[in-house]
Write a structure and sequence with these properties.
about 200 residues; mainly alpha; two-stranded antiparallel ribbon; 7 helices; about 50% helix
């Protein structure tokens, strides 16, 4: 993952400069023990309960208008679009985030939800985001794959003001990040719809 790449590059640079990287206090096996401890202490049950409540009922499938029919099976072809915001726009977004006491991530997530809602006509949107999975301070310096996907469910409705919706997104995002240790694969197993193999 990206954190491991950073640690590896940093330690190689230290060795290249004749310095010794700091010794590890913990290893990946300690992370495995910590994760198992979440189950033993009931933390994982609490996080599973949160996820099951969040994804109770029908899970929305995003229906953005398309130029062509959706294929029956999964395909992975695609392209990327890069967009850069100028300094003035970025500064304005930062100011708005500070004024509303949110992070820039939450602000942009709210805007993205509104865009998807307008394109699809849906008021129940799920957006996935990656989390580093390194919440415990003792595991910040360990090389290993801690990554997890977090499914963020929000309800952009036309009658809400953007500020009201942003407050909802902030609350839901904080709750989701508090429950980020529950593995996405487990969530998919429990609530995923397997009837349409062409959709994620």
């Amino acid at each position: 993952d990206g954190a491991s790449d950073f640690i590896l590059a940093r330690d190689f640079m230290a060795l290249y400069q004749g310095k010794q990287p700091p010794p590890l206090k913990f290893h990946y096996k300690e992370y495995s023990h910590w994760q198992a401890g979440l189950t033993q202490t009931g933390q994982m049950e609490k996080q599973e309960k949160y996820c099951m409540e969040t994804f109770a009922g029908e899970i929305p499938v995003l229906a953005i208008p398309r130029d062509y029919e959706h294929s029956a099976g999964q395909g992975f072809q695609g392209s990327e679009i890069y967009l850069e915001l100028d300094q003035k726009t970025t500064a304005q977004l930062d100011q708005l985030a500070k004024r509303e006491q949110t992070t820039l991530f939450m602000l942009l997530l709210a805007g993205y939800n509104v865009l998807l809602a307008k394109l699809s006509g849906q008021g129940d949107i799920v957006v996935g985001t990656g989390v580093a999975g390194r919440r415990h301070v003792d595991f910040q310096e360990i090389i290993g794959m801690f990554f997890n996907t977090l499914a963020l469910r929000n309800y952009p409705a036309e009658k809400k003001t953007f500020k009201d919706f942003l407050r909802e997104v902030k609350e839901r995002t904080l709750q989701a990040f508090d429950n980020q240790d529950y593995l996405f694969e487990e969530l998919v197993k429990k609530v995923g719809d397997k009837s349409n193999p062409g959709r994620n």
